Amino acid sequence: xxxxxxxxxxxxxxxxxxxxxxxxxxxxxxxxxxxxxxxxxxxxxxxxxxxxxxxxxxxxxxxxxxxxxxxxxxxxxxxxxxxxxxxxxxxxxxxxxxxxxxxxxxxxxxxxxxxxxxxxxxxxxxxxxxxxxxxxxxxxxxxxxxxxxxxxxxxxxxxxxxxxxxxxxxxxxxxxxxxxxxxxxxxxxxxxxxxxxxxxxxxxxxxxxxxxxxxxxxxxxxxxxxxxxxxxxxxxxxxxxxxxxxxxxxxxxxxxxxxxxxxxxxxxxxxxxxxxxxxxxxxxxxxxxxxxxxxxxxxxxxxxxxxxxxxxxxxxxxxxxxxxxxxxxxxxxxxxxxxxxxxxxxxxxxxxxxxxxxxxxxxxxxxxxxxxxxxxxxxxxxxxxxxxxxxxxxxxxxxxxxxxxxxxxxxxxxxxxxxxxxxxxxxxxxxxxxxxxxxxxxxxxxxx
Length: 448
Fold this sequence. Notes:
Blueprint: H1 4-12, E1 18-24, E2 30-36, H2 37-47, E3 50-52, E4 79-84, E5 90-91, E6 98-106, H3 117-130, E7 133-146, H4 150-155, H5 173-178, H6 180-192, E8 197-202, E9 208-213, E10 216-217, H7 218-238, E11 242-244, E12 257-265, E13 273-274, E14 279-280, H8 282-293, H9 295-302, E15 324-326, E16 333-336, E17 343-346, H10 355-371, H11 396-404, H12 407-413, H13 415-433, H14 438-444
Parallel strand pairs: 1-6, 15-16
Antiparallel strand pairs: 1-2, 3-4, 4-6, 5-6, 7-9, 7-10, 7-11, 7-12, 8-9, 12-17, 13-14, 16-17
Helix pairs in contact: 3-10, 6-7, 8-10, 9-10, 9-11, 11-13, 12-13
């Protein structure tokens, strides 16, 4: 990571000539501008820059859609202001003389945009701090690698893609080594960009892999996650390949984004573990209970797309029931570690999740459980798929209804956020429901 002084020196010495200024949109994508280095120093560093507020009110294809209170044709699609976060300045190692700075979004009168994902997570981080707690998290992000370029994949209508591995390579050293030039380049580039890289490993689907990074505070983890996701796509593209973070890109195993989260005191002391009793604290149990109690209502933030819900299938290590267990991968919530490493793993989010929204939902829920001293339900032992516990929503339509009618969501996030993301779901559902799929044509062309 670079300080403002180091960035200034690098631009002055012509070691940096391009600055990517980016924020994260509703879909979890980095959006923004590439600014000439000298102009960045002369104008943007001290005064910021602007972007159209429609960027938080579009669909996945960047189409403007009606119905958002934030912005519309009637209100003229005004600006939002970028508020640079100087702690996020990092080199982009795979681009020449380039750095990135991530930003928060403000209205033109300087107030934070409440529906901006990073602002939502920061609000929950501040809520935790007011309770004397610091939230830490790590995200485990899976993806599929194809030996097909993005352009060829698109021109071929995403059929007959060639996976980088032709068989299940879960923990296979050979499977990883077969794509190691790309994985190694990503690992090293992320290290140069200021991230603590742990490891890479193969996964179950053909060409599926995961690169793991060390945990950090929740906002930093979100920043690292989005930078890494963009970088993996870009670096694969530079090599004529493609990667996808779809939750369920084909009939085989989907791609997850397991989120590990824990709380510490502001002084670094343990909040989840009683060292003398060698057991979980009551605060930890309340936190878990809060996440479980709101799981169904907040699933829209863990599974934000139509495709997300195809991943929830029995026997695939993706959860289908709202259950918790100790080191039990069939549960939605898995408890791991002891002492300083005691943490909960939320296994519901897929690789397509917006990390800021998913962590904001998880942290808000856990703090709600602490505030209300919610009681932890009985632990599930054995197979959670057949436990009879309440189910994770099966469809986006069900998740949308649960979120829209949630009094807890309105209490924790506010009406504006709930209405905004309910409308996001409505747009996705409407567009999907009006689309003729390949499945329908194959099934009905001759036989109907």
